[in-house]
Amino acid sequence: MKIVMILIVLFFLITACVNTGKVVDDFNVCEDSDGLDEFTRGEVIFSDSGLIYKFEDECVTTRRVKEAVCNNGAADFEYIACPGNARCRFGKCRYAPS
């Protein structure tokens, strides 16, 4: 009987860990590492029904950042223009060295 219970628990753990190997609660959780900061390459960790998703900030053009954000507890994206003469590289706006 103990073996059957262990197998059932393992089955549920394995099915809950399909996406990333981590287990979370059934409610949604959204965490943003940098908010709306276009000068920091951040990430959003979002969980939904036991699966964990990771979204990273990325450059969509040389002058625009696709910023991953949390919006009312869910993952979302904002497009932010790099200010002044800053250019987007590696998911964040950067000024050229002087």
Structure description:
With 98 residues, this protein is an alpha+beta fold. The protein has one domain. 15% of the residues lie in helices and 41% in strands. It is built from one helix and eight strands; from the N terminus they run αββββββββ. It has one helix spanning 2-16; strands at residues 29-32, 43-48, 51-56, 58-59, 64-71, 74-81, 87-89, 92-94. The strands form three sheets. The chain has a three-stranded antiparallel sheet with strand order 1-2-3, with no helix packed on it. The chain is elongated and about 70 Å long. The model is unreliable at 9-25 (pLDDT under 50).
Briefly summarize what is shown.
The protein is α+β, with helices and mostly antiparallel strands and 98 residues long. The protein is 15% helix and 41% strand.
Mean model confidence by pLDDT: 78
Which residue ranges are poorly predicted, with pLDDT under 50 across at least 5 consecutive positions? 9-25
The fraction of residues in strands falls at: 35-45%
- Structural domain tally: 1
Instruction: Characterize the largest beta sheet: strand count, sense, and whether it forms a barrel.
Output: 3 strands, antiparallel
Give the count of helical stretches.
1
Order of helix and strand elements from N to C terminus: HEEEEEEEE
SSE class: alpha+beta
Helix content: 10-25%
How far apart are the termini? Answer: 71 Å
Gyration radius, rounded: 19 Å
Strand order of the largest sheet: 1-2-3
Overall form: elongated
The number of E-state strands comes to: 8
